[in-house]
Design brief:
heterodimer; A: alpha+beta; Ubiquitin-like (UB roll); DNA polymerase, domain 1; 2 domains; five-stranded mixed sheet; 5 helices; B: 745 residues; alpha+beta; Aldehyde Oxidoreductase, domain 4; six-stranded mixed sheet; binds FE2/S2 (inorganic) cluster
Chain lengths: 156, 745
């Protein structure tokens, strides 16, 4: 029986070479191009997706290790672009070129999955693996904090 | 794709992809006459199209041919939708929001009805689309405003005809024309087709700046919604039927050659279909030469490249070593060099001086490293070529590919995709020409993605540079003479290989610097290029801003005054009447930055507040940088940036550009340097060519000078003052003077 992987709620067979990183399976096999290639070595965070809810660098994650896992990409983060982070991103106007932003949002969402009220130091520490060459960091910090506040309201 | 999951994937993709239906409105442009800068035509689907002739922008030493056919288009459809299509390339600088907002404001249209579309690359239709030199806003502001105002007047005329009424009794507001006496209203959509038959006003009346609604406001980027859902597609995301994937490794040395190639192991990688030798194309933006591997996916292509066994003949540049080269640059500015420009009598001033002071400033090579590495899709067929590319210059793609393929420019069809960062790199289309070479060899469309390693090692590098500045001070601490000697391999070597030293055009910014010291000379020392040199965001302003900014601080110390006092003194002594405006505006941003940052206030030990000001790309920026020492390292706590770019079009976008300039300024001040050994770049990826991360980001406060002077660019000018202000702050905080970039604390 062939192995399979679930991406944004849909199950797909794994039918590519075993050592292919998840990034290329997503981008080129399934054509989910929202997840970006930036460095290919786990250094920049552009390729961040969720594996069972945890932020993961898809460029260094062989597809063979992903069998049976649940993957969420930026395209599947929310139904109607209404995740608190997406709303905050829109409100703050974070992106410049936008290329790193899927990775930034997915990484921040991973953080909020594990820690719904991070301090500003925790935000910086969690986001430091994600490079933005356009320099949107100030707005990223603001938007993540804003989304965390929003989540806190939803919970209480 | 294999059939069993084909339909599953398609179904999912459709849910997630923005509607691909093209709303392109076909209009017969050739039928328009060629007299006015505005042409109107009716849309086949009902509605109107206004074509605008924008002046050719001069950018980075290239002037596009004058062209009097419309090159930006405003479509008003009968449902009220408004589309603005312009040829300027978007790479994150926000131009695709700023320019349309100008039209919409004058037109009294509603921003919610606006769609912005990136024009395809077509020099005949859109004029030069080369985007660089912070020139877009500067050249297109007034024509775009006039176009919006003309459209409004035509809509008013249309309404007056329908009612009928005197146009003088009608006004436009929020996508409607309103009849003042009765309050009757007609929507823009309803009026569009009739407006298309109205005469085009030659000199439409422009709004007064106090009535602006969108210009100068905080307007969100039009595409943020797409970005946050991963739907914005960049060049690297292009998918076309029948496409194969390629990866490439380049010759590590400029003008080196392939000596031997063993492709047997590469061909064994699952999915690999071909290995293609890509020749060096000896034009400025042609391939450096390399070997590409083609496969049915990028990963296999990359694996294939890793398995190639290649020997290179490194050739004449094979001994390039940046450490010894830098020593040579420093030597060449420490002795007399070739005179570039002169005024007054420098030697006379130096002879009479109460004090003289000199310092040498250096900076290493930089590479652009946009987050989206170079990538494009190209399909070469017998008599045509289709391109999908993130690019800053579709014009150059057309000309390089027409030359390479021997086909007419008009058969090179360029789809301009948004760039995932450009910073000057994507002006050069070597990566597109390579994809064309591979597609030609294998016969299918090719998506070529460079790895980060290739992006780092196969750049068009920012010049490494040495500068020596020497100045004289009189008894009262006035600067009386200024000798500025530079040595750097110049961008001109791309176009005229073999140039031995930076020529006059590369030194012109020194002569026209608003300091305007009366006795002045510039000299250029020998600096032949051994790699490709190219524009990097802000270009010369990076190192000229650094030398002027730090040297002003050093002069202030010599004269026993603070830096702001010294700078004001220098500006006040500028006797050149032609520079009076530059002097006044430079002083104003300086004062604003000083005030907002609390310049001069006492600071705790180990902290410093440095300031610098620079004029570039016709914009004035002063920055005050506050640092705190952390042992041997330092942290930037806060930056106050004061900007005079004339009328600000979009405060949000303009602020973002300043924040970005600070971030890039931190990267190049603290981390970035490309080194060569044996002719080749020694670093490869973000582990050994680090750039700044979120933990380095200070609080950035941006302050704009209120102005209705015509707007100037913002993409680059913020880069110049950061590094010198930082160096000055570190001197105050630690007592250590930093004259080399990157700064080693
Ligand atoms: S592409 Fe995966 S971390 Fe950079
Ligand atoms: S927005 Fe351009 S790299 Fe982050």
């Amino acid at each position: 029986m062939s192995k399979s992987i679930t991406v944004n709620g849909v199950k797909y067979p794994i039918d590519v070479p075993e050592d292919m990183p998840l990034l290329w399976f997503l981008r080129e096999r399934l054509e989910f191009t929202g997840t970006k290639f930036g460095c290919g070595k786990g250094l920049c965070g552009a390729c961040t997706v969720h594996v069972d809810g945890n932020a993961t660098r898809s460029c260094v994650m062989p597809i063979s290790a992903m069998a049976g896992r649940e993957i969420t990409t930026i395209e599947g983060l929310s139904e109607n672009a209404d995740h608190p982070l997406q709303k905050a991103w829109l409100e703050v106007g974070v992106p410049q070129c936008g290329y790193c932003q899927a990775g930034q949002i997915m990484n921040a969402a991973g953080l909020l999955n594990n820690n719904s009220s991070p301090s500003s130091e925790e935000i910086e520490a969690a986001m430091q693996g994600n490079i933005c060459r356009c320099g949107t960091y100030q707005r990223i910090k603001k938007a993540v904090a804003m989304a965390a506040d929003e989540l806190a309201k939803e919970v209480s | 794709m294999r059939p069993e999951i084909e339909s599953l994937i398609k179904e999912e993709r459709n849910k997630h992809t923005a509607s691909a239906a093209s709303n392109e409105n076909k209009t017969d442009i050739t039928a328009l006459t060629r007299r006015s800068f505005l042409k109107v035509s009716a849309l086949a689907t009902g509605g109107m199209c206004l074509g605008v002739t924008l002046p050719a922008a001069k950018s980075h030493g290239k002037t596009a041919a004058a062209d009097f056919s419309p090159n930006a288009f405003i479509y008003l459809e009968s449902n009220g939708n408004l589309m603005v299509k312009s040829g300027r390339c978007e790479m994150g600088q926000g131009i695709s929001t700023a320019l349309p907002s100008v039209v919409v404001d004058e037109m009294e249209a509603n921003w919610d009805y606006v769609r912005v579309e990136q024009a395809e690359g077509d020099i005949d239709k859109y004029g030069s689309q080369a985007t660089g030199g912070s020139a877009s806003i500067r050249t297109q502001y007034i024509p775009m405003r006039k176009a919006g105002a003309a459209a409004k007047e035509m809509l008013i005329a249309a309404a007056a005809k329908v009612w009928p009424a005197d146009p003088k009794d009608c006004y436009a507001e929020n996508h409607f024309v309103i009849h003042k006496p009765t309050g009757k209203k007609l929507g823009y959509g309803e009026l569009a087709s009739i407006a298309a038959t109205m005469p085009v006003p030659e000199e439409p009346t422009l709004k007064s700046s106090k009535d602006f609604k969108y210009i100068g406001s905080y307007l969100p980027r039009h595409d943020v919604g797409m970005v946050i859902q991963g739907k914005r597609t960049y060049g690297v995301d292009t998918i076309v039927p029948g496409m194969q994937y390629a990866a490439i490794v380049h010759c590590p040395v400029l003008d080196g050659k392939l000596k031997s190639l063993d492709k047997s192991e590469a061909m064994k990688v699952e999915g690999v279909t071909a290995v293609v030798e890509v020749d060096r194309m000896k034009v400025p933006f042609g391939s450096l030469g390399g070997v590409a591997v083609v496969a049915n996916n990028s990963w296999s292509a990359q694996q294939g490249v890793d398995k190639l066994k290649i020997e290179w003949d490194r050739g004449a540049n094979g001994s390039y070593d940046t450490d010894s080269y830098m020593q040579m640059l420093v030597d060449n500015v420490t002795q007399p060099a070739e005179k570039m420009a002169e005024r007054g009598n420098v030697e006379g001033a130096f002879n009479k001086a109460a004090k003289t002071l000199s310092a040498v400033y250096t900076q290493g090579h930089l590479v652009h490293s946009p987050m989206e590495p170079n990538a494009s899709v190209v399909h070469v067929q017998d008599d045509r070529c289709d391109v999908w590319a993130s690019t800053q210059s579709p014009d150059d793609i057309q000309s390089v590919l027409s030359q390479f393929l021997g086909i007419d420019k008009k058969n090179v069809h360029v789809n301009v995709m948004i760039a995932g960062g450009g910073f000057g790199r994507k002006f050069k289309c070597d990566y597109v020409q390579e994809a064309a070479a591979i597609s030609k060899a294998v016969g299918t469309p090719i998506k070529l993605i460079w790895t980060r390693e290739e992006d780092t090692r196969t750049g068009y590098y920012h010049s490494n540079s040495a500068q020596r500045v020497e100045a004289s001070l009189d008894e009262d601490g006035n600067v009386t003479g200024w000798l500025h000697r530079i040595a750097f391999p110049s961008i001109n070597t791309l176009f005229t290989p073999g140039i031995e030293r930076a020529p006059a055009n590369a030194v012109a910014d020194l002569e026209s610097h608003p300091f305007g010291i009366s006795n002045y000379r510039s000299e250029s020392g020998k600096a032949p290029a051994h790699t490709r040199i190219g524009w990097y965001r802000a270009v010369y302003a990076i190192f000229y801003g650094f030398s002027h900014g730090v040297f002003a601080d050093e002069l202030a110390e010599q004269a026993g005054v603070d830096t702001v006092t010294m700078l004001n003194r220098i500006y006040d002594n500028n006797e050149n009447k032609a520079q009076a405006e530059q002097v006044a505006r430079s002083k104003a941003v300086l004062e604003l930055a000083a005030k907002k940052s609390g310049f001069g206030k006492p600071l705790p030990k180990g902290e410093g507040l440095g300031i610098a000001v620079h004029y570039s790309f016709q914009t004035y920026v002063a920055m005050a940088v506050h640092v705190r020492m952390k042992g041997d390292d330092f942290e930037v706590v806060r930056v106050d940036s004061a900007v005079d770019c004339g009328q600000v079009l979009n405060k949000d976008g303009a602020t973002a550009q300043q924040e970005g300039a600070v971030a890039m300024g931190i990267s190049l001040s603290k981390y970035c340097e490309i080194k060569f050994k044996d002719g080749a770049v020694v670093t490869s990826n973000f582990h050994d060519y680090p750039v700044m991360r979120i933990t380095d980001m200070p609080e950035v406060h941006v302050h704009f000078v209120e102005s209705d002077a015509s707007p100037t660019g913002l993409g680059e000018p913020g880069m110049a003052p950061f590094a010198p202000a930082l160096s000055n702050a570190l001197y105050q905080a630690s007592g250590k003077r930093h004259r080399s970039l990157p700064i080693k604390a």
